[in-house]
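User: Assemble these into one structure.

Assistant: Restating your components, then the assembled model:
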Amino acid sequence: MSLTEERRATGDPGESAQQPLLSLRGIRKNFGAVQALRGVDLDIMPGKIAALVGDNGAGKSTLIKTIAGIWSPSAGELLWEGRPVTIRSPREADNLGIATVYQDLALCDNLDIVQNMFLGHEVLSRRLLDETKMEKKAKETLSDLAVTTVSSVRQLVGSLSGGQRQSVAVARAVMREARLVIMDEPTAALGVSQTAQVLDLIRRLGDRGIAVLLISHNLTDVFSVADSLAVLYLGKLVSSGSISDYDTQKAVEIITTGASGGPASQGRERTLPAD
Ligand SMILES: Nc1ncnc2c1ncn2[C@@H]1O[C@H](COP(=O)(O)OP(=O)(O)OP(=O)(O)O)[C@@H](O)[C@H]1O
Ligand SMILES: [Mg+2]
């Protein structure tokens, strides 16, 4: 039984429809005197695209690094499908089904698409690399995700465009059977058509039941794909709710002032610690 089949077999679809895939409870992260995260509560639902926004230095990257196993939180709790978990390393995040896609990191320019997609998890047959099997699986995954712009899976990743690199990184996560894909500024360096391609890919992850945590400064992107919005301001989550509760103007106001006055944020603000 494959990992996905096993997860599907053991998972309860009825329950997981309501239960968050990942919950953050009171997450704090201090770097010496700097309080980068000051008690963040956030629920990430399966198959939904959650956008995390905030000004420079708000704590977005720190937050995803605590989920991805790079930092341990100074305080607070992570719940994976309701169970408390400690994620001590990227390997432990990977084992849970959490994949982080960084735009420039994570891929090796001097390796081709297949080699990148299987890096560290190569398929062996009689102690030799099973190139045929890996190539077939890589092609299938890309085609399942409707990634049609790469001409050959044997192309070196160094020769790909930014959007194609993103697609390979996402396909790698899908192939590893990720259940939560975290993307930090996936479209920051991309042109118009490559951005559209990556946003399409994000939507397809949602369609496949994979949760996405999208960090972006681009509110047009956020409003075009996200199901929910969460705003960090100086390490606090000052507003969160369905994307339909916001418009661009309101989102900009909360991002820049930390206050919204809107119904989506008020309950949250009252529950935040005072510091
Ligand atoms: N390794 C570190 N050591 C010390 N302080 C850090 C470290 N990483 C982040 N910080 C501080 O934590 C705060 C949040 O930084 P973070 O990188 O999470 O912000 P961000 O929301 O991702 O910003 P940006 O939009 O610019 O990427 C900042 O004040 C930053 O200086
Ligand atoms: Mg950042």
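The chain has a mean pLDDT of 86.
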